[in-house]
């Protein structure tokens, strides 16, 4: 059954239809790609799914639960986590603490317990550190756990964002151009990481990407967005050979 | 790796606590050996107050990353609520220690409540707008206390914002808050030792809060609000919490301050926006987010005008020049570059990538 | 008639606030900094007039001209010495530096003129105007203040819309980098802004002192803060906003002094500011800024 179901989602900004009648169905455990030319509305779709923008119309259903109209925090708690196109880390916190912020809602103790350093503080913090280190390990960041996030090289910052998003224990992970700014080696490594995350955590992943090698290499299904509308959808290889899609990318 | 980090934070904090304790011991030794002028001795409790204020404000400015110019207002709430209590219970609670402890609780809680009341509407404003609104609130609090008359007689409490006569009290009535004349006859229950203990307490709260789940959530909002929201951090809740805790600690500063004076008035020089600005100067010069720096800056900058007393009329002018020069020296990009060049010459330019 | 005369007094005080707020708002627009020392420029302007008119016994016209010159030079010098090195630094560092400059100016005044208040001789020699058979009495200062403010406001709008230097100011405040690329001399544009702002503060200074004739080193502090409030009130960075904010603030202050409580008038002014910001978080004419995700 579909874990994410999106029906006729639309939003306009000052008369311009940024996303128009958008629909999407993702099966559990699928690696799904959302592609399209610049300005097609891909990031806007992510912002709609995560409650940053409220849609003018349409519905979002995650694992049978209605998410329409909920705010970002509620949506995250229902199980959607994301990364950002322009990296948004907690730059003055350590790499480890970035991930620990992601664990915030699953590992709790009160503020008083924290200030007084009561046993539950110590126990929980230990568990949090263990869990965070596990996640950092997956992305090869364990050795940099104590670095300030802003001191990481670019490629690793993108990976840290993924680790932080995973820390919230989502059902669906949204990756906004995870390979942007990476060199071919880093991209190849990232592809392995993404596949690994899917397999290990049984994660459903929806990603926006311009790097066609990555898209063709790991995505099972694609949706192509053009001028805010769905242009094509289906199996990756079929979509990529669709003449309509080629025209949209290359022009007439 | 993990242990190293824990040790490092722990060691850093320990040094800060030790600096406070050693300074206390030194000052006590100076007092006992008669090497501290009575003028300086009179400054000890105010200095403790300012240190607490700087720490409290640093929680908002450094950890939460928001600008407040109204912390003198929270200090004012703490001072007046606690002095009110102490004057009222002067006879009912003869034990000065217990009375002061209760006064502390009352001052902190009242100030924290004000922090929440003010925080709810204003914390959605940003930057300079938040700064001016907090300044405005601080001034409103000061202004209202100046026109407040509260008395108590056998029938209970009486309240007016006109004058003592409109309190309509019986003959046995006692005026507690007398408008612009404030509260007179507050028991002077605080002293330097209590002041230092309260600094240690404030430090304990701020440092432990910062290194906890709550602290991380607060700092994540500071570093990137949108990302914090995306991982499910409740922005309003943690902003408000940081603001309320900071206000409560400022209230404690106010309690300490009030119980060092037998007459408490809400004058601009005690609780005006200039005081809030002074606390901000401590925080910025000590290093935003750096608690040890706040303590040192508060002490040094309070002592500086006194140490310059020999220069009489010129001292405040020099203070101003020092302030400007220090800001340019520490913050101007060209100066930072210049300093780095000099450091590089002496081979000290090993920039540690490790998170502090 | 009482109400109308209070209203006119309010507009007059508001005109002074507006003149100061213009300086705040222009500097904020162009340098993105809160120039906390701006209020103290008023005090320097006041003392300049006092020295020339009361101490040296020269003409008030000379006093006013000297005051504008002194303040303009002072404003530009402060910018060059204290603010320019910090142009790329954090806003907080700039704010603290401005506070340092404010302390400096106040203590300079204290050193030269001592803390004892000086009686300021009004620069306005127009006598009171009686209207409605003497029921409405408007003082010359009040009238001159309001008219001066209106003239300056119109001149300023004209300067910004029609002159090259004025349009350069708008360009720098919109986008410093782009302005630089278009060949605008950003440094001299910023200097010009400080010059105009400080010159206006000088005018505000002698008008304020003519209406409230006691002069101390702290004379500028509170009007400075109020003008800052007025600028935020109207939407900081907006020139018409500063004008509207200043006038409204003056009216609110005088009316609450007259009808509610003279001791609480400041509190009421601040309360209104808070209410306005809660309804419109960027002030009456402020632009809203959205963060792109």
UniProtKB/TrEMBL annotation, chain A:
One of its GO terms (cellular component) is plasma membrane. The keyword ATP-binding applies. InterPro entries: AAA+_ATPase, ABC_AA/LPS_Transport, ABC_transporter-like_ATP-bd, BCA_ABC_TP_C, P-loop_NTPase. This is Amino acid/amide ABC transporter ATP-binding protein 1, HAAT family. Residues 4-252 form the ABC transporter domain. The keyword Transport applies. It comes from the Bacteria. GO terms for molecular function: ATP binding; ATP hydrolysis activity; L-isoleucine transmembrane transporter activity; L-phenylalanine transmembrane transporter activity; L-valine transmembrane transporter activity. Keywords: ATP-binding, Nucleotide-binding, Transport. One of its GO terms (biological process) is D-alanine transmembrane transport.
From TrEMBL, chain B:
InterPro entries: ABC_transp_permease (IPR001851), LivM-like (IPR043428). Pfam families: BPD_transp_2. The lineage of its organism: Bacteria, Bacillati, Bacillota, Clostridia, Lachnospirales. Keywords: Cell membrane, Membrane, Transmembrane, Transmembrane helix. This is Amino acid/amide ABC transporter membrane protein 2, HAAT family. One of its GO terms (molecular function) is branched-chain amino acid transmembrane transporter activity. The chain crosses the membrane at residues 12-31, 43-65, 72-90, 96-122, 129-150, 192-210, 279-304, 316-336. It is found in: Cell membrane. GO terms for cellular component: plasma membrane. It comes from Acetitomaculum ruminis DSM 5522. It is a multi-pass membrane protein.
Automatic annotation (TrEMBL), chain C:
It is a multi-pass membrane protein. InterPro entries: ABC_transp_permease (IPR001851), BCAA_transport_permease (IPR052157). It comes from the Bacteria. Pfam families: BPD_transp_2. Its main location: membrane. GO terms for cellular component: plasma membrane. It is found in: Cell membrane. Keywords: Amino-acid transport, Cell inner membrane, Cell membrane, Membrane, Transmembrane, Transmembrane helix, Transport. GO terms for molecular function: L-isoleucine transmembrane transporter activity; L-leucine transmembrane transporter activity; L-phenylalanine transmembrane transporter activity; L-valine transmembrane transporter activity. CDD domains: TM_PBP1_LivH_like. The chain crosses the membrane at residues 6-27, 34-53, 59-78, 90-115, 135-160, 192-215, 227-255, 267-286. PANTHER family: BRANCHED-CHAIN AMINO ACID TRANSPORT SYSTEM PERMEASE PROTEIN LIVH (PTHR11795), HIGH-AFFINITY BRANCHED-CHAIN AMINO ACID TRANSPORT SYSTEM PERMEASE PROTEIN LIVH (PTHR11795:SF371). Belongs to the binding-protein-dependent transport system permease family. LivHM subfamily. This is Amino acid/amide ABC transporter membrane protein 1, HAAT family. It comes from Acetitomaculum ruminis DSM 5522. The lineage of its organism: Bacteria, Bacillati, Bacillota, Clostridia, Lachnospirales.
């Amino acid at each position: 059954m579909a874990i994410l179901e999106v029906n006729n989602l639309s939003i306009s900004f000052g008369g311009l239809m940024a996303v128009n009648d958008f629909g999407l169905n993702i099966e559990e455990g699928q690696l799904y790609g959302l592609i399209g030319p610049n300005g097609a509305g891909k990031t806007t779709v992510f912002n709609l799914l995560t409650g940053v923008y409220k849609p003018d119309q349409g519905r979002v259903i995650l694992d049978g639960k209605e998410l329409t109209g909920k705010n970002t925090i509620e949506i995250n708690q229902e199980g959607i986590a994301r990364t950002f196109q322009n990296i948004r880390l907690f730059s003055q916190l350590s790499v480890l603490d970035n991930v620990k912020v992601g664990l915030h809602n699953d590992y709790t103790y009160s503020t008083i317990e924290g200030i007084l350093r009561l046993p539950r503080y110590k126990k929980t913090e230990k568990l949090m550190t263990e869990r965070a280190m596990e996640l950092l390990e997956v992305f090869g960041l364990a050795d940099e756990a104590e670095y300030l996030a802003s001191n990481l090289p670019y490629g690793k910052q993108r990976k840290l964002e993924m680790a932080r998003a995973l820390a919230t224990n989502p059902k669906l992970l949204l990756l906004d151009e995870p390979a942007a700014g990476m060199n071919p080696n880093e991209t190849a490594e990232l592809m392995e990481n993404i596949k690994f995350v899917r397999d290990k955590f049984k994660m459903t992943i929806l990603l926006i990407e311009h790097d066609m090698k990555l898209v063709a290499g790991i995505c099972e299904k694609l949706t192509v967005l053009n001028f805010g509308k769905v242009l094509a959808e289906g199996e990756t290889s079929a979509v990529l050979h669709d003449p309509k899609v080629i025209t949209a990318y290359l022009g007439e | 790796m993990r242990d190293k980090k824990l040790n490092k934070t722990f060691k850093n904090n320990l040094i800060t606590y030790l600096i406070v304790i050693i300074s206390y011991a030194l000052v006590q030794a100076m007092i006992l050996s008669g090497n501290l002028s009575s003028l300086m001795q009179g400054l000890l409790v105010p200095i403790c107050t300012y240190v607490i204020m700087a720490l409290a404000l640093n929680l908002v400015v450094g950890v939460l990353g928001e600008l407040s110019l109204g912390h003198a207002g929270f200090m004012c709430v703490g001072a007046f609520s606690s002095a009110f209590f102490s004057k009222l219970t002067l006879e009912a609670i003869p034990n000065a220690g217990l009375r002061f402890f209760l006064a502390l609780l009352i001052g902190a809680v009242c100030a924290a409540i004000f922090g929440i009341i003010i925080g709810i509407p204003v914390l959605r404003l940003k930057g300079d707008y938040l700064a001016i609104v907090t300044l405005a609130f601080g001034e409103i609090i000061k202004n209202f206390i100046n026109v407040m008359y509260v008395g108590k007689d056998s029938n209970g409490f009486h309240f007016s914002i006109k004058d003592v006569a409109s309190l309509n009290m019986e003959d046995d009535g006692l005026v507690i808050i007398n408008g612009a004349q404030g509260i007179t006859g507050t028991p002077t229950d605080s002293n330097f030792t209590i002041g230092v203990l309260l600094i240690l307490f404030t430090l304990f709260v701020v440092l432990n809060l910062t290194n906890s789940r709550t602290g991380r959530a607060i700092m994540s909002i500071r570093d990137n609000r949108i990302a914090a929201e995306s991982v499910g951090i409740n922005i309003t809740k943690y902003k408000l919490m940081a603001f309320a805790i900071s206000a409560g600690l400022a209230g404690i500063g106010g309690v300490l301050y009030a119980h060092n004076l037998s007459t408490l008035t809400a004058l601009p020089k005690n609780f005006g926006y200039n005081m809030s600005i002074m606390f901000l100067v401590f925080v910025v010069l000590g290093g935003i987010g750096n608690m040890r720096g706040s303590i040192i800056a508060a002490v040094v900058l309070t002592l500086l005008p006194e140490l310059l007393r020999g220069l009489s009329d010129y001292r405040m002018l020099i203070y101003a020049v020092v302030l400007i020069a220090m800001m340019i020296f520490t913050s101007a990009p060209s100066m930072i570059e210049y300093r780095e060049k000099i450091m590089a010459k002496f081979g000290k330019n090993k920039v540690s990538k490790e998170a502090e | 008639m009482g109400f109308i005369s209070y209203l006119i007094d309010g507009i007059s005080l508001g005109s002074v606030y507006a003149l100061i707020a213009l300086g705040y708002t222009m500097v904020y627009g162009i340098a993105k900094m809160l120039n906390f020392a701006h209020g103290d420029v008023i005090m320097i302007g006041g003392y300049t007039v006092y020295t020339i008119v009361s101490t040296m016994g020269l003409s008030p016209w000379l006093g006013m001209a000297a005051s504008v010159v002194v303040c303009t030079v002072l404003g530009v010098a402060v910018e060059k010495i204290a603010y320019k090195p910090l142009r790329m630094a954090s806003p907080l560092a700039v704010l603290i530096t401005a506070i340092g400059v404010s302390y400096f100016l106040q203590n300079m005044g204290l050193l030269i003129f001592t803390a004892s208040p000086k009686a300021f001789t009004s620069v306005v020699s127009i006598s009171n105007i009686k209207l409605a058979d003497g029921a409405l009495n408007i003082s010359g200062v009040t009238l001159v203040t309001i008219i001066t403010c209106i003239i300056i406001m119109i001149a300023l709008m004209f300067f910004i819309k029609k002159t090259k230097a004025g349009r350069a100011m708008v360009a720098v405040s919109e986008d410093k980098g782009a302005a630089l690329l278009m060949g605008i001399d950003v440094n001299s544009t910023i200097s010009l802004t400080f010059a105009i702002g400080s010159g206006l503060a000088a005018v505000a200074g002698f008008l304020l002192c003519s209406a409230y004739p006691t002069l101390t080193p702290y004379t500028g502090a509170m009007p400075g803060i109020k003008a800052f409030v007025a600028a935020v009130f109207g939407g900081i960075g907006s020139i018409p906003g500063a004008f509207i904010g200043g006038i409204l603030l003056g009216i609110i202050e005088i009316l609450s002094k007259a009808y509610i409580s003279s001791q609480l008038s400041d509190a009421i002014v601040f309360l209104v500011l808070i209410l306005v910001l809660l309804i419109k978080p960027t002030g009456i004419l402020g632009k809203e800024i959205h963060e792109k995700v």
